[in-house]
């Protein structure tokens, strides 16, 4: 009998690459997508269900109807009021963990996807950041993700629940939304290819972040689910910091000569925020989970392919 795997947040940025990684690693698994609404979308799931994570009964109905053997909990709200972030990111996780314990038992694994935003503004001496680094989130999202992590840790420590946590650092790769720097850059380049002015405007491009290809990260998530001990936490990143300007310039180069010369404008706004955040992926690499060096990805031709697809729509 094939495993039944539930993926919450199945319409999010990481879900597509994760689904592909699961199909490769577990070709006989039944993949069950869950999202806030049951709208019809073109997707590779075997089943699709609606769930409101903020309502315990909605979560219990989802778990009771789907009877998953394991869960990839990707659902997360990135922006909104502190109350909304708390409802989805913290309360929703608590409801899911409780429903799995009650209806399936504590030995059915739940992988919870965390964020480097939990770490926040670290001192240079704390970088690169390993799993034991201090947590100093600087915004409501980071605070809610840290509280989510604490809820997950408590489920393991107090209830003996089989949970695994993975903190993702910054994403690179095809299909990213324009809310993320690489996605915005590709969107703007696609506009240039369609005839827009060759002027790319961004926020602060001097901050340093750890970028890794989302497809490599998805494979790492699957490997963590399959092989990590209960209660484990892994940082998934490249271990190398790059400024936003470096990322933008590499994406421009990858788009090819057809784009032509472009002007890059950096317009910082608001407080400085987190200046640098880089992972120490040593634990993940020791467990063979770490993504490859992103240098090849930054120079990869997928950027040009993505830009051309946008141009042709």
Largest sheet: 7 strands, parallel
Mean pLDDT score? 91
What strand line-up does the widest sheet have?
A: 3-2-1-4-5-6-10
Structural class: alpha/beta
Please report the number of helical segments.
10
Question: Roughly what percent helix?
Answer: 25-40%
Radius of gyration: 20 Å
Concise account of the structure shown:
This protein is an alpha/beta fold. Helices cover 39% and strands 18% of the residues.
Describe this protein's structure.
- The chain is α/β, with parallel strands linked by helices and 313 residues long.
- The chain is 39% helix and 18% strand.
- The protein is built from ten helices and 13 strands.
- The strands form three sheets. Strands 3-2-1-4-5-6-10 form a seven-stranded parallel beta sheet, with helices on both faces. Strands 7, 9, 11 and 13 form a four-stranded mixed beta sheet that branches.
- Strand 1, helix 1 (15-25) and strand 2 form a beta-alpha-beta unit.
- Helix 2 (56-66) crosses helix 3 and helix 5 runs parallel beside helix 7.
- The longest helix has 22 residues, at 82-103.
- The relative contact order is 0.14.
Search tags:
313 residues, 7-stranded parallel beta sheet, disordered C terminus, 10 helices, 4-stranded mixed beta sheet, 13 strands
